[in-house]
Amino acid sequence: MNNTLFTRIAPAFPRFAPLLAACALAMAIAFVPGTAHAGADDEGDLDAPNAAAGAPAASTAQDDSSSDDVVSIAADGMSASIDGSPFALENFSRSQVGSNGDVDGVYEGYRYFVSDEPGSLGVIATDGLTVVYVPAEVAEAVGFDAGSSESRGYLKRLLVALDAQNSKGGATLSVEGEWVFSGQPEIEQDGVAYRFDQELKPGEYYACVVGADGSDVTDASNPSYVRLTHADFATLSPADQVSVVGAPEGFAALASFLQNIDYSPLWVTLKTTLTAIVFIFILGLLAAYFSLRIPARAQDIADSIFTIPMVLPPTVCGFLLLLAFGKNTALGQWFIDIGFPLIFSWQATVIAAVVVAFPLMYRSARGAFENLDPNMLDAARTLGWSNAKIFFKLMLPLSWSSIAAGTVLSFARALGEFGATLFLAGNYLGVTRTIPIAIYFEWMNGNTDVAIFWTVIIMIFSFIVILFINLWSRRTTKYRRGADA
């Protein structure tokens, strides 16, 4: 399994991600004074004596995967422990990106915000190097020995498991490449300085990556260029002081998932679709009736205008609506002036749904009206019926089966609208985030299980819609056959 696939699958199966990560680890070490290096291909004796923390390391390479025990990860993904380890991790956090500007006019390098107090364990990951900083006083207090293969093995497995759990689709820590452990707040490797516990602002501590000469190492033209992937931070604590409550399993896991999920996309979708279908139904019938009462040449133009949203990509429809209702247009500015801005509001989701689903209702209604016997309509007029009476008493009842099918199809189209809604209404939780938008952003954020849940919900709705159309069509067919007999 490659690394990209692992990062996609792990969030959906949190119980198995630590086991997969633990089974993948096989590391070894080579030492320089003050810093412990772990190479991926070295092998050694697990029972070899361990050097004291901070002491020069032994020359014998040792296997950093010192135990086969499974990493226990808390349900919230913020703490983890291993049986036999004297220490555990808690308060885990992950920074996918950092900042790269000056601080009070001084360039401090590419920096990640850590905490409002010093002493956190820090990890900075690049394509080929993983730098781990464990403050010396913390290491001594919890029993972490940077010169011990066993200690490094425990810590690496904890970090890899928690990092995978919190990756949300991003890059993850890997046993490939080089790992460096140090108790010093500044570590220099290949012309790059990795600095931890840096108080760049009062009460704000950062981890920084900068060239040894003070240059920007994220600049591809820099000879010391490194590709930073992310950073992790946590509190290293004695194992007996960390309580790791794992995720529930079986029906308990399902109940917990359903209890904790945010259902606002469902309510926003239903509210939007039910409101939109009212406008779609009325506008579709009026447009179909209107298009049949104008000259033939004008009908072609009107029909093209009413149908074009059905053939345009939804993103194009959304972009055109954004141009029409944006603040730079007279219409958009008028709505803003009256205190009712449309862009990025719930009303915008309704407008987007109406525009993309309207053609289905229009085409269904027009086709039904065109199939009516014109002689029957003329006979009604000779009896003195008004156009309104003919429409409501004759045209609608005779065309109702097709109109109902068009209404249901329009409802389904509005239910699944994504592109135009995202362009015009955006993605605001509880306001404009519909189910299709929730599926996309949950998947992008690595919440595959939530994306799957909403996918199942939308499939159920679609199934019900199709089943309704089939049952209605069968009922209508039987009625017509009975009438013909």
TrEMBL record:
Residues 48-67 have a biased composition (Low complexity). Keywords: Cell membrane, Membrane, Molybdenum, Signal, Transmembrane, Transmembrane helix, Transport. One of its GO terms (molecular function) is molybdate ion transmembrane transporter activity. It is found in: Cell membrane. One of its GO terms (cellular component) is plasma membrane. The chain crosses the membrane at residues 266-292, 304-326, 338-362, 390-412, 451-472. CDD domains: TM_PBP2. It is a multi-pass membrane protein. Residues 42-67 are annotated as: Disordered. Residues 266-469 form the ABC transmembrane type-1 domain. Residues 1-38 form the signal peptide. Belongs to the binding-protein-dependent transport system permease family. CysTW subfamily. This is Molybdate ABC transporter permease subunit. It comes from Eggerthella guodeyinii. The lineage of its organism: Bacteria, Bacillati, Actinomycetota, Coriobacteriia, Eggerthellales. The gene is modB.
